[in-house]
Amino acid sequence: MDAESNLIKLNTEINDLNSKIEDKNAELASLEGRLIETGEEPKILSAGQYIVGQDIPQGRYTVTPVGEGSNFFVDGVGEVNTILGSYGEDSYTFFTVDGDVIQTEAKVKLTPVE
Predict the structure, then answer these.
(1) What are the CB-based long-range contacts (under 8 Å, 24+) for 34-38?
(2) E-assigned strands of the chain?
(3) Which of 12, 50, 91, 95 could form a disulfide with 102 if both were Cys (CB 3.0 to 4.6 A apart)?
(4) Beta partners for residue 103, in sequence order
């Protein structure tokens, strides 16, 4: 086997092992009760109101403040009323469905999670 073929084979093995490591890390996170990000891009929301299903997709998110933080609300099936940032929580995880209204008084980051 020449060096190039050997290198291709080794790269394939490395990719397979990396994939297995990612799977095991996700399994470990699940067993430890840690949240797993979906891999979708986080959404940055400026202060304002947003309608789930129109402005952002329904799903499960972890919200974190961008800056000092402020009040954060979700009006709908899974109501949320919390303070994020300096005088409140570092983050908050919640579910949304189409039609929920999200209101934030300052910029926040929504990270999709499983």
Answers:
(1) 35/62, 35/93, 35/113, 35/114, 36/113, 36/114, 37/111, 37/112, 37/113, 37/114, 38/112, 38/113, 38/114
(2) 43-45, 48-51, 59-65, 71-75, 80-83, 92-96, 101-104, 108-112
(3) 50
(4) 49, 73
Centre a 10 Å sphere on the Cβ of residue 64 and count the other Cβ atoms it contains. 18
pLDDT at 109 over 90: yes
Q: How far apart are CA 96 and CA 75, in angstroms?
A: 9
Write the pLDDT tens digit of every residue in 58-89.
Answer: 999 999 999 888 999 999 877 899 999 988 89
Element (H, E) at 23: helix 3-31
Q: Quote the tokens at residue 54.
A: 């129109």
Across the beta sheet with 48-51, the strand order is 48-51, 101-104, 71-75, 80-83
11's tokens: 């790269």
| 3-state SS, residue 71 | strand
pLDDT of residue 10: 84
